[in-house]
Design a protein that fits this description.
It is a single chain. By secondary structure, the chain is α/β, with parallel strands linked by helices. The chain is 38% helix and 13% strand. Strands 4-6-5-10-11-9-7-8 form an eight-stranded mixed β-sheet, sandwiched between helices. A three-stranded mixed β-sheet has the order 1-3-2. It binds glutamine. The site of glutamine has 13 residues, from loops.
Length: 480
């Protein structure tokens, strides 16, 4: 069952080969066998999933009717714990569904559970979870990437055909690369942020993981679209992405930014990316080198803007309205201070401090305002590039997954790890990670980046590559 594509699953169910209940049961068996080993899930919703599948079998509708899915625990799910992997929300039962959850539900999906993640989506390794680190199915001593590590690990291990994620600075693309699955971060504003717990509102974007670009196309079509409850969601029609998968990329011009292939890119990963680009050429694409001169500003720009927005967004967790409250506060100050000190983990506290600092009266101009200006320059690099090329190809990361613990005590090393994913986030353009090979048994992802709202072109390029290669079909040993 878990070897079938999403289109095959939907078709087989429609043809009566098996029921939604059968599909759900098969995936719940895989979750029984593997979820604990990977620590991929925070909450399981087995009983609700079985009930939902049975109801769908009685009254089937929706483009994805019967499709099991796992939601990152950042998306509010009505009546189900929504923790954002934080002690702060360990007791929070969401009273409503995020728009993403609602839309996928309307399309007929069956929610199997909530995926582990870095606390409040802050991290690149999934070690910052109140519920413990997630493990990479390709090697249990290695990180799965972050912050959507539970979602990526779950799809890689075949615990669900698809999972949702969010990407603020790389949190879909980087774990997809580390776990050998396909992941797409759409254009900023393409997918509603309503009910998606906010980290950095000008960057946060929901997206999905699946095994292939074709599978992602089916899920994204159901997730995307204007939502009047999200003021930054864009009023623009959503095409049926699957119908745009012609598999033909002949004549497409792909730009390789020199800055992404410079010092820092590890030799083994570079060989994999070079081979992937040769494959794109063989499929008929024209490949040219381009310059994106402000790339090296992305890490410092992002790590000013994202913490600034986070410090503001996370001010709502005060121990009063909802979430964690410290025991026996002596007065209001003590209630605020200890609830936040005890409820947030160390990385979240670090971000709040950085954000409050760069927004403070004395430093606002020097840091926050400056970062807004460099952000504009980085976006300008993409404007200029897309005047010349149809698509950008690059690595997702400098190297494959690293061992658990290796960078845990070195926040700067962890931040530098995001160098190739941050620029597209700052510019708001859509990006993907596509499995492209292995170094020492660990997956390597090819990053593809398209102009604003060209998700169809992006998915089609990935699909064309996947028609010619089989990297995306490999399963980690032990999870076949
Ligand atoms: N790794 C980046 C961070 O720690 C990006 C996280 C994300 O995209 N949510 O902020």
């Amino acid at each position: 069952m878990h070897e079938r594509s999403i289109a095959e699953l939907i078709a087989a169910r429609a043809a009566g080969e098996f029921s939604a209940a059968d599909i759900t049961a098969a995936y719940l068996d895989r979750i029984d066998a593997h979820a604990d080993t990977l620590n991929a899930l925070i909450t399981r919703t087995d009983a609700a999933a079985r009930e939902r599948a049975a109801a769908l079998d009685a009254r089937a509708d929706g483009a994805l009717a019967g499709l099991p899915i796992i939601h990152k625990d950042i998306f509010c799910t009505k009546g189900v714990k929504t923790s954002c992997a934080s002690r702060m929300l360990d007791n929070f039962i969401a009273p409503y569904n995020a728009t993403v959850v609602e839309r996928l539900h309307a399309a007929g999906t069956v929610t199997l559970g909530k995926a582990n993640m870095d606390e409040f989506a802050m991290g690149s390794s999934n070690e910052n979870s109140f519920y413990g680190a997630v493990k990479n199915p390709w090697n249990l001593d290695f990180v799965p990437g972050g912050s959507s590590g539970g979602s990526a690990a779950a799809v890689a291990a075949g615990l669900a055909p698809a999972a949702t994620g969010t990407d603020t600075g790389g949190s879909i693309r980087q774990p997809a690369a580390f776990c050998g699955v396909t992941g797409i971060k759409p254009t900023y504003g393409r997918v509603s942020r309503y009910g998606m717990i906010a980290f950095a509102s000008s960057l946060d974007q929901g997206g999905c993981f699946a095994r292939s670009a074709e599978d992602c196309a089916h899920v994204l079509t159901a997730m995307a679209g204007f939502d009047e409850r999200d003021s930054t969601s864009v009023e623009r029609d959503v095409p049926d992405y699957a119908s745009q998968l012609t598999g033909d990329i002949s004549g497409l011009t792909i730009g390789l930014p020199r800055e992404y292939f410079a010092e820092g890119l590890e030799a083994g990963s570079r060989e994999v990316i070079d081979a992937a680009i040769d494959q794109m050429k063989a499929l008929g694409a024209n490949v040219v080198e381009i310059d994106m001169p402000h790339t090296d500003l992305a890490v410092s720009t992002y790590y000013v803007i994202a913490p600034a927005e986070a410090s503001s967004n996370l001010a709502r967790f005060d121990g009063v309205r909802y979430g964690y409250r410290c025991a026996d506060p002596v007065d209001l100050d003590d209630l605020y201070t200890r609830s936040r000190a005890e409820g947030f983990g160390p990385e979240v506290q670090r971000r709040i401090m950085m954000g409050a600092y760069v927004l403070s009266a004395g430093y606002y101009d020097a840091y926050y305002l400056k970062a807004q200006k460099t952000r504009r320059l980085i976006a300008g690099d993409f404007h200029d590039a897309f005047a010349k090329v149809d698509l950008i190809a690059a690595p997702v990361t400098q190297a494959p997954a690293f061992p658990i613990g290796e960078k845990a005590d070195d926040p700067v090393a962890m931040y530098l790890n995001d160098v190739y994913t941050l620029p597209a986030s700052l510019a708001g353009v859509p990006g993907m990670s596509v499995p492209a090979g292995f170094v020492d048994g660990l997956p390597v992802g090819l990053q593809l980046i398209a102009p604003w709202f060209e998700e169809g072109r992006l998915l089609n390029a990935a699909h064309s590559y996947q028609q010619a290669t089989d990297w995306h079909t490999r399963r980690p040993p032990g999870f076949e």
